Amino acid sequence: MILEETTSPGEALERTQGENDMSAEFPKVMVILPTYNERENIPELVDALFRLDIRNFHLLIVDDNSPDGTGKIADQIAQSQAYRGKVNVLHRPQKQGLGPAYIAGYKRALVLDAQLIIQMDADFSHQPKYIPQLLEEARTHDVVLGSRYVAGGSVDERWGPIRKLLSWWANRLYTPSILGIPVRDTTGGFRLFHRNCLIGLDLDRIKANGYVFQVEVIYVMYRLGYRIKEIPIHFPDRERGVSKMSPSIAGEAALRVLQIMFRHRDLSPIRRRMAPCDTE
Ligand SMILES: Nc1nc2c(ncn2[C@@H]2O[C@H](COP(=O)(O)OP(=O)(O)O)[C@@H](O)[C@H]2O)c(=O)[nH]1
Ligand SMILES: [Mg+2]
Fold it and tell me: Measured from the CB, is residue 34 less than 6 Å from ligand 1?
């Protein structure tokens, strides 16, 4: 999808990845991992991400004081010889949901001068192997989404027909028709943003939590005219740990989508925030 756009972060990337190989010349990539009780996943996931061997690559773990001690494990990883200086941990006092965790993570990533910000679940449903593709598409797009609902994308084979139908209906029928947005996977959480998109978004505009948080962010970015690309991903269910999403969050989502439409339908590219983001 190409929207009217004057700036080209893709070109900026070309420039920074120009002639020489020094890592400082490469844009700083930061992957945000929100965690709540992910002790069984986080060490392995961190290893898998660094095995991708991407230049100038950093992690930001945002932990909401997980009772299972994920935060402590994250600190140990951050202080380990292998990852010192490459892994940051943001501790928050209590579980407040995915939306506030991401907002705090985006703000911290901006403060840490990240140029390309990737967000993904910490349970292997978002597979590290797709990250090189996200980065490749970031050369020519402002926002890149890992998508279950474009050609080639898929969800876990074990999903029952009701769950499949509900997710498909929400993403492919309900949300696009209410919001008038050509994005096929609006609730997915595997995303890449150029820094300027998070600044332009104006994080204080975003109010939703849960699945609708993802919808609100992408809707505002669409209204602001950022160029959005979806790449197909397979989305397997988590093997370890438990999901924190509840049916009540999913039920509330349908109404919240209407709220989002009314809240942001008048936004246009001119309303992008230009000043540096307020940071913590
Ligand atoms: N920091 C933080 N992370 C959360 C919270 N709720 C969920 N997560 C993380 O967000 C990601 C997605 O959550 P998950 O329970 O897997 O949701 P599902 O994939 O929709 O079932 C995982 O990495 C969770 O650990 C929260 O309240 N705070
Ligand atoms: Mg999950």
Answer: yes
Per the listing, tokens 């192997």 go with: 129
The pLDDT tens digits for 117-157 are 999 999 999 999 999 999 999 999 999 999 999 999 999 99
State if residue 35 touches ligand 1 by the CB under 6 angstroms criterion. Answer: yes
The number of the ligand 1 atom at minimal distance from the alpha carbon of 96 is 27
CA distances from 175 to 216, 226, 230 (A): 11, 19, 16
Q: Split the chain (280 residues) into runs of 10 and give each run's mean pLDDT.
A: 39 38 72 97 98 98 98 98 97 94 97 98 97 98 97 93 86 92 94 97 90 94 98 94 70 86 95 68
Q: Which domains does the chain have, with CATH numbers?
A: 9-266 (3.90.550.10)
Residue/partner pairs of 175-179 with CB below 8 Å, 24 or more apart: 175/215, 175/257, 178/257, 178/258, 178/261, 179/215, 179/219, 179/222, 179/257, 179/260, 179/261
Closest CA to 192 of 124, 122, 116, 123: 116
Helix, strand or coil, per DSSP, at residue 78: helix
Pairing state of beta strands 57-63 and 87-91? parallel
| CB of 36 sitting under 6 A from ligand 1 | yes
Contact 163 CB / ligand 1 (< 6 Å): no
Q: Smallest Cα–Cα separation from 119: which of 216, 210, 30, 48? A: 30
d(CA 102, CA 71): 16
Atom 21 in ligand 1: residue holding the nearest Cα: 243
Q: Is the CB of 103 under 6 A from ligand 1?
A: no
Ligand 1 geometric centre to CA of 243 (Å): 7
The backbone torsions φ and ψ at residue 234, rounded to the nearest 5 degrees and listed phi first, read -95, 135
